[in-house]
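Hello, quick one for you while I still have it in my head. I'm working through a protein record and want to make sense of it properly. Would you mind checking whether the C-alpha cells look sensible for this chain? I owe you a coffee for this, so here goes:
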Amino acid sequence: MATYAQPRSLLAAPAGRQLPALRHLGPNWYATVMGTSIVANAGAALPFAVPGLRPALTVVWGLSALLLGALLLARAGHWAYHRDQAGAHLLDPAVAPFYGCLAMALLSVGGTTVTVGRDVIGLDAAVAAGTVLWGAGTAVGLGAAVAIPYLMVVRHRVEPGSASPVWLLPVVAPMVSAALGPQIVPYLPAGQWRESMLLCCYGMFGLSLLATLLMMPLIFARLLQHGPLPLALTPTLFLVLGPLGQSTTAVNSLADVAPGATQAPYADALGAFAVLYGVPVMGFALLWLALAAAMVVRAARNGMTFAMTWWAFTFPVGTCVTGAAGLARHTGLDALGWLAAALYAALVVAWAVAGVRTARGLVSGALLAAPGAPRPMTARTT
C-alpha cells in the first residue's frame, strides 16, 4: 500500500539468474489481495439483501483467490531470483512492515472462501480451505507482529519524525485472525476445542489492540510535530481505520459464536461487550475517517498522483463495513445498517479506482519500474 525508497542491496544476488520484472515487486502488493477480498467479505456481511449482489461477490472472491495465487508465485520468484533485494526489503523500515500484508491476504481470502466461496466449492471444501488459510495467515501474522518490531528496534535506523501508519500493518494482522477465527468455531468439536479457539481469538484481539495503542500516539505525534505526510503517503492515514474496524468486527463475530463455545454467563457478557466496545470505537473510526479524508483532499489539491498507497482506501474501509454490520446485528438499529451500506458504496468505488489504476500501471510497466526510474510515456497513473 505504499511506495518506498529503494533500499541498498545487502545480499549477493544469485549469479546468472534474473527476472527483472519481479525485482521491485515488494510485499506491499499483497494489499491488492486484501482490498479485493474485503469487497466480497464486506458485501456478504451487509445486514440486508441486495438483488444480484451474491453472484457479483462470488466473482470478486474468485478474483481475490487468483490474485493471491499469482502473488505468492511472484513473490517466491522474487526471493529465488532477487535475494539481495528481498533481504534489503526486510532491513528497510519503510518496507518491512508490509510483511503484515502477506498474513492479512491469506486470512482475508480464507475468510471470504468460507462466507462466499462455499457457494462454488461447497461448504466442506470451503471450511477446509478457510481453516488452512487461517492457520497459515495466523502463523505468519504472529511472526510478523514479533519480528518486524524487533527489526525496527535492533536493525532499522528510524529517523525522528518518520513514524507512519504503515507501522500498524504487522500488529493488526492478529486482529484479522481474531475477527475471522469465529467462522471456524462452529465446525470444531463442542467443548474444549471451541472454547480454546474462542479464547485464542480473544487473546489475539488483546495482543493487537494493545500493540496498536502503543503505535497510535507515535503516529499522531508525528502529524502534530512534523505536519502532513508526503503526498504519496497521505492515503496511508486510512490504515488507522484497520485496527478500529477490525476490532469492532472481531468482538461482534466472537459474540456470535460465544453461546456455543462457552458457558452462559460469559456468553452473555461477551455479547454486551461487543456493543459497549464497538459503538465508541466505531465513533472514533468515523472521526478518523473524516480527518483522513480531509488530508487526502488537501493532498489531491497539491498534486497527489496515483501510487500503490491508494489501496489503503480499500481494506481498512471494508473493516469498518463489517464492524458496522456486526453492530447492526447486535443492536437491531437500522441506522447502523445504513452506515454499513454507505461505507460499502465508498469501498466499491475506491476498489474500482485503485484496481483500474493498478492495471494501467502494470500494463505500462510503471508500477514495476525501479523507484526513481523514468515512467513510460504511455503510463497515465495520475
Notes: Confidence is low (pLDDT under 50) at residues 1-16, 373-382. The first helix runs from residue 30 to 45. The two ends are 16 Å apart (CA to CA).
